[in-house]
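agent> Task received from the user: take the single chain below, predict its 3D structure, and emit structure tokens. No templates, no multimer pairing.
agent> Plan: (1) validate residues, (2) run structure prediction, (3) serialize to tokens, (4) report one or two observations.
agent> Step 1 OK, no nonstandard residues flagged.
tool_call: predict_structure(input=
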Amino acid sequence: MTEVTVVIPSLWERSNLLIRALASVKGQTSGSPEVRVIIGRDKSDARNLGFGAVDTRWTVFLDDDDEMLPNHIQTLLDGQFTSEADVIHSSAIVRAEDGRERIFGFDCTPEELLVNNFIPTGYMVRTSLARAVGGFPPQIPEMPEDWGFLQRLVKGGAKFYYANPPEPTWVIHLHDGNTFQGEGILYP
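)
tool_result: status=success, residues=188
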């Protein structure tokens, strides 16, 4: 039985990005996660629509412009088994269009998440808790929708765990159209 559903929120105008994202799900070493591609008015809307299609214990949100490395889901499942956490995350490679990269990811306390967004996309969340806190807040320009969701999880009592594998398990691709603007992160 599949334990994990990967929800890929997208917009019609970004459908060309889905090929790489879908291929990265297919390449997972952890078996065959369910996949749901959800097209919405914006990313928050698509993610929340995704919850309606998920009936597994865990949900991983894969942005349409990012990719999972082959060990991503297995790393997160192993981290949950070790920690019994509600939200498990790992490190990511932040990659610019010019090929420059930096590894991003570290452990942080729930209190820190109320003030700063430390966790990149690619985390795995207990589906029932994500529903209980009301999913993703409406998208607003001043705050990435992931961070608003993580804040809701903190306030809902979620236990977080940083699965710190020897190598990153996620790739965030920087480009003009994404909300993860990494100039300060990628090029300090």
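agent> Step 4: summary for the user.
The CA atoms of residues 27 and 166 lie 19 Å apart.
agent> Done.
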